[in-house]
Amino acid sequence: MSTPAITGVRILVIDSNVFVAKRLCDALKLEGFDVIHATQAAYALTMLEWNPPAAILCATTMREMGAFDLPRIVHGDAKTAGIPILAMGDGGDQALMDAFRAGCDDYIDRRLGPESIAAHVRSFLRSRADGFQPTQMLGSEDTALEGSLSHLDLPGVIQMLGHSRQTGALYVNAGDLDAIIFFDRGDVSHAESGDFIGDDAVVYIIKACNEIDHGVYKFVPGYTATTRTVLRSVTELMLDALRELDEEVHDGGQQQ
């Protein structure tokens, strides 16, 4: 597999904290990126059409417009829809879910430090270009990605496999849940769990794994489904699952 060149790839950093942004920009430059820094998102958006970056790295703690506000603007315009947005915040259990709900392509905990953030951006862009390499990530001879759902939630796993355009089968076991989700070059093509198949299965699986503190997943590359049962995009299905969870929490609160 060829490794795409990083040198000269433009990254737009949006952060009002000049001191933190300076250290981050320096770390990105050491990775070979061409970096543009803006302290205001509204101003940064004016340069996208004539000077589009390969990715936007934006803080979630901006006073006016922040990372969670950008997707509806950037991805809503056909000319800039392909620019990934990486949200950068102070962590928290729901940070990844909040970023996903907002339409961001990834989330990075800024407490990791500028060097780790820069390395994450590099890995993210390489994954989008050439696909995720499970053997490299695991550092073993096994051609499978596996882990605990207590460390990385299921939407995060699905999002990662989608961004890296993987083909294979994701096995999920959490409590009474036993499920499988097939990917075809990043798109979810088939899913089943118990009596649920297709779109309904994806929604059911995500809901069943919400905030779970136990469970495991294993991704085996190369496996394909014999039939396609998932007809909607995984983004729509995950949003449906999150919306149903929110409604269930709301209805439960009203009944108390």
What topology emerges from the helices and strands here?
Blueprint: E1 10-14, H1 18-30, E2 34-38, H2 41-45, E3 55-59, H3 70-74, E4 85-89, H4 95-102, E5 106-109, H5 114-130, H6 134-138, E6 145-148, H7 154-163, E7 168-174, E8 177-184, E9 187-193, E10 196-197, H8 199-208, E11 216-221, H9 234-255
Parallel strand pairs: 1-2, 1-3, 3-4, 4-5
Antiparallel strand pairs: 6-11, 7-8, 7-11, 8-9, 9-10
Helix pairs in contact: 1-5, 8-9
Strand portion? 15-25%
- What's the average pLDDT? 81
The strand line-up of the biggest sheet is 6-11-7-8-9-10
Poorly predicted tracts of residues: 131-144
The CATH topology label of the largest domain is Rossmann fold
Observed structural traits:
alpha/beta; 37% helix; single chain; Rossmann fold; 256 residues; 6-stranded antiparallel beta sheet; 5-stranded parallel beta sheet; 2 domains; 11 strands; 9 helices
Summarize the structure.
With 256 residues, the chain is α/β, with parallel strands linked by helices.
